[in-house]
Each structure stands twice: as C-alpha cells, then as structure tokens.
C-alpha cells in the first residue's frame, strides 16, 4: 500500500510562529556558539517585526524563508561534509544596508571570527594533550 503525504493546513496568522520554530530547530545542527548567537538574533528579529506593516512583514518572512531553506540544505549530510554553513554577501546586498545594519554586520563578523579562533585554539590544545 502506497503511503500518502499528509497535508497540514496552516493558519496564515500562525505562519511566522511556525517559521520561527522551524529555524530554531534547524539551529540545533549548528556548532554551539553559532547556535546561541543565531537563536538570539532570530528571537530579536522576530520580536522587532511582530508589529511591522504588512508590506514589510512579507519581505521579512520571505527573507527568513530563504534562510530556512538554505540552512536546511546546508545541514543535510552532504552539506555538513563540505563544512560550509552560511552564505557570503554580494556587494550589491551590502549597498542596501543602512549604517546601523552595517555596524551590526561588522559586530557579527568580528564575533564569528573570535569564535573560530577560540575553536581552533581549543582544537590545537586538545591535539597537544592527546600527543602527550
């Protein structure tokens, strides 16, 4: 007997909540520092856009759906084996940001680089301990 796909109807008013929860579930697949930072960022962004005008909310949800799809693909077996998580910005994307957004992006980049350095140092320390 063939299995049938179950289609769930989602109340459009609940879609942002469903998307939010899906993103947080996907973050379980990220390294712990990235997960904590990502969860905090998602939580903050969704709170800030809770009362956004309809046009802005549609753009907001569309961008987060794209993020959700991209992260879902990257966290599959093949994506993880490549070790690539995230996406580089195009120069045209950066032109759309205001000064505050560029400042936030710079802070995020610096934090991510600090985390990478810390993880590399921890890995080097673990290797040295295992050699002893």
Automatic annotation (TrEMBL):
CDD domains listed in its UniProt record: Complex1_LYR_SDHAF3_LYRM10
GO CC terms of this entry: mitochondrial intermembrane space; mitochondrial matrix
Record localization: Mitochondrion matrix
Domain of life: Eukaryota
Coiled coil stretches, renumbered: 98-129
Description of how the protein assembles with itself and partners: Interacts with the iron-sulfur protein subunit within the SDH catalytic dimer.
Function, in words: Plays an essential role in the assembly of succinate dehydrogenase (SDH), an enzyme complex (also referred to as respiratory complex II) that is a component of both the tricarboxylic acid (TCA) cycle and the mitochondrial electron transport chain, and which couples the oxidation of succinate to fumarate with the reduction of ubiquinone (coenzyme Q) to ubiquinol. Promotes maturation of the iron-sulfur protein subunit of the SDH catalytic dimer, protecting it from the deleterious effects of oxidants. May act together with SDHAF1.
Protein name: Succinate dehydrogenase assembly factor 3
Taxonomic path: Eukaryota, Metazoa, Ecdysozoa, Nematoda, Chromadorea
